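Exercise: predict the fold of this chain.
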Amino acid sequence: MTDICFTEDAPHILLVDDDARLAALAGRYLSENGFRVTRAASAAEARVKLRAMEFDLMVLDVMMPGESGLDLTGSLRAERAPAMPILLLTARDTPEDVLAGFEAGADDYLGKPFDPRVLVARLRAMLRRAQPPTATTGPLKLGEASFDSGRGELIGPNSRIRLTGAELALLTTLAAHPHEVFSREALAATLGLDDVNERAIDVQVTRLRRKIEPDPREPRFLQTVRGKGYVLKPGP
């Protein structure tokens, strides 16, 4: 069943988990720490909530009956839904499982069981990354696209290109220092990932290339520097 807890003027979180006890405990803790929480017990119920309300972030269990959290994440990204940050909760936290989550479009993950204080810290960090930068700079040309870091917008030849929170954080960091090589460690720190998940940076880079490169297999703008990391080279 759905349980909605309200905290005035708070970030609105959609918490999706079929474990009623865990969801109740997590929802209560989040509410006590300044979040407005709406619960859903399945991906189908989450879709209903997403159509009816606006959310700042989704916390989504991976292993659920019916449509999994991983499938729901991939579906929402494929539908070009608003790029709401998504944190996956999973008892399967091998590197392969984590990378599959990032490939589907998740912004972060947290293994079960988890410390609720860590969940709160992760959510606050994700919300900070999702906010457009306060500093305003001129748009950066990336072929037919342009990135305005001040507005946090990637504009294609015909329309705005949606970015996930993690993609926006990654592109903003690289765009702030074009032609400078960033190690995976540095980029992982920017996205709030721990050292174990530096390989997740490769997944985010691959996703970002699909949105800015004419041919992602032969990147012109977001290039790999062998043995060092990645560099953004803007241009026409």
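Check your answer against the key: Residues 140-232 form a domain with the Arc Repressor Mutant, subunit A fold (CATH 1.10.10.10).
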